[in-house]
């Protein structure tokens, strides 16, 4: 081990501490629980690991996580096989880009997503359109597995902002692309798994290592995104600026030259980043929200009462209405804390040797930020094991900001789709609860709220009864 490296399990030849982490993850049901448990065993908030060939630390406490999220030395992503494969063999896009490329492209993406309406009224209208489509489907069913319906609605809102149109699919519940993205979400964890730590294993176990899955996803995504980009090139005029791809092509035409980062390849990977970063995160959060409504009918009734008092029946709810309903915001926040979809965030990489909590962290160390102990800390929340939205409200019912609550991260790599996600969360939850009573199929056999782990955690599949409140 490097000198003054954080404590952690032994490093075995070739595999490092991987067998130990895997065994514990299997026993406890998820990687983040194993990391939390190990940090207790070794009495440290900064845990030192080596997974296969990758030197790694996992950080468990809020203060150190905040230090990492707000310090430039930790702003970059690991440069391993999984990350390169994820970005189709390039270091482009936003999520995995570095240095000047990342700063330039991130700022462009944020500015132009805002220009085409992210977080504004136009986004609300697109959300309302998709909700109406879902209502038509749900009204015809008695028992609903909402997890099968949400992803397509979310991706259509996102795609209509990025590419100006919905994705047509005969049977959207079987949409091939979405299915593969979902599989990818479950096949990996934030560390990138085997493909990051022992990439040579892809030659021996291409299926089990997830290699074939990502190759197939890359192929399908490339075909899909290239077709959209080509269509935009063909129909581009300087007046066509209503979606993100047109804005990017306009910039390409302005910045034409050998030095420019505004290329078709860059556009493809940015679209990939928005696609894979945006839809499983938002739809899994909504899925957890509806599950909590099934499990906590009192909370559901309280929201419905507030909605009925605040809005006329035919009024279409907008994102700006959230200020009128702090209780709804508090419930959404409590869902994100209690059943966080990203218990571990990152991954990050040290760009030089650094000092962290008295330890020496070598250059190019991978960092995983485990937020679960913060979200389940008795010191911070008092009763973290209870689902209690009121913890986000003060005595007069106004929202309280908890600095330790970081669903969208913090600092320069903070989520760039948070306005989109928060808009979807608010409008979907309020419009759905205005229209439906959401109840369990069998009160004596309630669905479990135990998450299914993965890159993004989600509820285990469950059905609920959606009954119209007004005929
Ligand atoms: C509930 C939904 C979402 C959650 C909980 C979430 C959470 C996060 C978090 C915690 C990060 C920071 C990772 C880090 O610090 O290393 C992040 C980054 C990112 N998110 Fe989100 N996100 C959500 C929705 C979205 C949406 C809708 C989009 C796209 C429209 C998106 C695109 C991205 C991108 C591109 C990054 C990488 C930013 C960078 O590296 O500069 N996310 N997200």
Low-confidence stretches: none
How does the overall form come out from the CA principal axes? globular
Number of helices: 17
The overall pLDDT average reads 93
What's the N-to-C terminus distance?
67 Å
- Percent of residues in helices comes to 40-55%
Radius of gyration based on Cα positions:
22 Å
Q: Give a list of the ligands.
A: protoporphyrin IX containing FE
Major sheet = 4 strands, mixed
Q: Which strand order does the major sheet show?
A: 1-2-7-4
Report the β-strand fraction as a percent range: 5-15%
List SSEs in N-to-C order.
HHEEHHHHEHHHHHHHHEEEEHHHEEEE
Q: Classify the secondary structure makeup into a structural class.
A: alpha+beta
Strand runs, count: 11
GO molecular function: heme binding; iron ion binding; oxidoreductase activity, acting on paired donors, with incorporation or reduction of molecular oxygen, reduced flavin or flavoprotein as one donor, and incorporation of one atom of oxygen; steroid hydroxylase activity
Cofactor: heme
Keywords: Heme, Iron, Metal-binding, Monooxygenase, Oxidoreductase, Signal
InterPro entries: Cyt_P450 (IPR001128), Cyt_P450_CS (IPR017972), Cyt_P450_E_grp-I (IPR002401), Cyt_P450_sf (IPR036396), Cytochrome_P450_fam2 (IPR050182)
Protein traits:
11 strands, heme binding, oxidoreductase activity, acting on paired donors, with incorporation or reduction of molecular oxygen, reduced flavin or flavoprotein as one donor, and incorporation of one atom of oxygen, 48% helix, 3-stranded antiparallel β-sheet, binds protoporphyrin IX containing FE, 17 helices, alpha+beta, 471 residues
């Amino acid at each position: 081990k490097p000198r003054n490296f954080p404590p952690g399990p032994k490093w075995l030849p070739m595999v490092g501490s991987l067998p130990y982490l895997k065994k514990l993850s299997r026993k406890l049901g998820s990687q983040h629980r194993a990391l939390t448990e190990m940090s207790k065993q070794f009495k440290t908030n900064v845990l030192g690991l080596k997974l296969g060939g990758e030197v790694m630390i996992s950080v468990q406490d809020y203060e150190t996580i905040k230090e990492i999220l707000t310090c430039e030395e930790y702003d970059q992503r690991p440069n391993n096989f999984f990350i390169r494969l994820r970005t189709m063999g390039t270091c482009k896009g936003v999520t995995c880009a570095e240095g000047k490329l990342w700063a330039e492209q991130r700022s462009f993406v944020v500015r132009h997503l805002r220009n085409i309406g992210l977080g504004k009224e136009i986004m609300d209208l697109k959300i309302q359109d998709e909700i109406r489509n879902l209502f038509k489907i749900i009204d015809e069913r008695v028992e609903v597995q909402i997890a099968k319906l949400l992803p397509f609605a979310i991706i259509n809102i996102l795609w209509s902002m990025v590419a100006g149109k919905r994705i047509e699919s005969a049977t959207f519940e079987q949409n091939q692309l979405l299915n593969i993205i979902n599989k990818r979400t479950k096949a990996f964890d934030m560390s990138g798994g085997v493909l990051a730590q022992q990439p040579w294993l892809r030659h021996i176990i291409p299926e089990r290592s997830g290699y074939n899955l990502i190759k197939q996803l890359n192929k399908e995504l490339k075909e899909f995104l290239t077709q959209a980009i080509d269509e935009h090139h063909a129909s581009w005029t300087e007046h066509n600026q209503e979606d993100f791809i047109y804005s990017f092509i306009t910039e390409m035409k302005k910045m034409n030259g050998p030095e420019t980062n505004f290329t078709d390849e860059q556009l493809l990977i940015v679209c990939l980043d928005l696609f894979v970063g945006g839809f499983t995160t938002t739809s899994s959060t909504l899925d957890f929200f509806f599950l909590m409504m099934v499990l906590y009918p009192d909370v559901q009734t309280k929201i419905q009462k507030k909605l009925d008092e605040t809005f006329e029946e035919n009024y279409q709810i907008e994102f700006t209405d959230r200020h009128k309903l702090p209780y709804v915001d508090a419930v959404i926040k409590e869902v994100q804390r209690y059943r966080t979809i990203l218990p571990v965030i990152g991954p990050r990489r040290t760009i030089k040797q650094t000092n962290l909590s008295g330890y020496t962290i070598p250059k190019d160390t991978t960092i995983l930020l485990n937020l679960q102990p913060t979200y389940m800390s008795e010191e911070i929340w008092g009763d973290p094991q209870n689902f209690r939205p009121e913890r986000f409200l003060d005595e007069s019912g106004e929202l309280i900001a908890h600095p330790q609550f970081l669903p969208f991260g913090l600092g320069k790599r903070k989520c760039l789709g948070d306005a989109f996600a928060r808009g979807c969360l608010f409008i979907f939850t309020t419009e759905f609860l205005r229209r439906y009573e959401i109840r369990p199929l069998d009160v004596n056999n309630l669905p479990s709220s135990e998450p299914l782990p993965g890159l993004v955690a989600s509820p285990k599949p469950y059905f609920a009864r959606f009954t119209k409140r007004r005929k």
